[in-house]
Design brief:
One of its GO terms (biological process) is lipid metabolic process. Keywords: Hydrolase, Signal. This is Alpha/beta-Hydrolases superfamily protein. With 206 residues, this protein is α+β, with helices and mostly antiparallel strands. The protein has 2 domains: 43 residues; 152 residues, 3-Layer(aba) Sandwich (Rossmann fold), CATH 3.40.50.1820. It is built from 7 helices and 7 strands. The strands form 2 sheets. It has a 5-stranded mixed sheet with strand order 1-7-4-3-2, sandwiched between helices. A two-stranded antiparallel sheet has the order 5-6. α4 packs across α5 and α5 crosses α7. The longest helix is centred in the first third of the chain and has 26 residues. The radius of gyration is 20 Å and the shape is globular. It starts with a helix and ends in a 6-residue tail after the last helix. The structure holds 2-acetamido-2-deoxy-beta-D-glucopyranose (NAG).
């Protein structure tokens, strides 16, 4: 009899652990977005080559070899991402964040990539899940994850990205922008894409 109840407890604990693991895994999202301001009848469709290429950028941004990244000679800088021209490496040492902005000539696009959680500090930001009101135009009642929001908006990351995008546009004209990242980087990519969409649609941004 006693053995049976222990078995039940064990099953319950396993189930609980499984649910927690599921929750953690579901947070490991990969976000990639292609910003397009096309007409409705020309909606972007899923393109496997572009998706795989953006995964490579999301993978490369994890590397600590900053020289290799800057010159695009790092161990993950090859194959689909060959010929990438780095415009700016963004490293926020205080908040342990990393990203880059550059131009992929074969895609004729600006590519922005964000690294995911790489430190205890990032994990604390991950856990800072309490939601925050998002005050974007035309989005009443929108709420977002506070930690991820701060990682993009309240660090040097946003300024670095906007500055680099401006420079890339000066050099290459009005080309598409693709944003990518894994885990926390995926969440930051989502905030960045929204931010850029709002800014670019504002005529004062040149
Ligand atoms: C996917 O994107 C690549 C790179 O821009 C392009 O060369 C290719 O034609 C696209 N494929 C499809 C099916 O649209």
């Amino acid at each position: 009899m006693e053995q049976k109840s222990w078995l039940r407890v064990a099953i319950l604990i396993s189930l609980l652990l499984y649910l927690v693991a599921e929750e953690v895994l579901s947070k490991c999202i990969l976000f990639t977005a292609e910003l397009k301001f096309a007409h409705k009848d020309n909606l972007p469709v899923y393109n496997h080559t572009i998706a795989m290429t953006l995964v490579e950028y999301a993978s490369a941004v994890y590397l600590k070899d900053l020289t290799g990244l800057a010159t695009w000679t790092c161990s993950r800088c090859g194959d689909l991402t060959e010929g990438f021209e780095m415009i700016e490496l963004i490293v926020d040492v205080e908040h342990c964040l990393q990203g880059f902005v550059g131009v992929a000539k074969d895609l004729n696009a600006i590519v922005i990539a964000f690294r995911g959680s790489a430190s205890i500090m990032n994990w604390i930001e991950d856990l800072y899940w309490k939601q925050l009101d998002l005050k974007y135009p035309g989005m009443p009642d929108a709420m977002v994850h506070h930690g991820f929001y701060s990682s993009y908006h309240e660090t040097t990351v946003r300024t670095g990205v906007l500055h680099a995008v401006k420079r890339a546009k000066e050099l290459y004209g009005d080309i598409n922008i693709m944003v990518t990242g894994h885990s926390m980087g995926g969440a930051m990519a989502a905030f960045c894409a929204l931010d850029l969409a709002v800014i670019i649609m504002n005529p004062f941004f040149s």
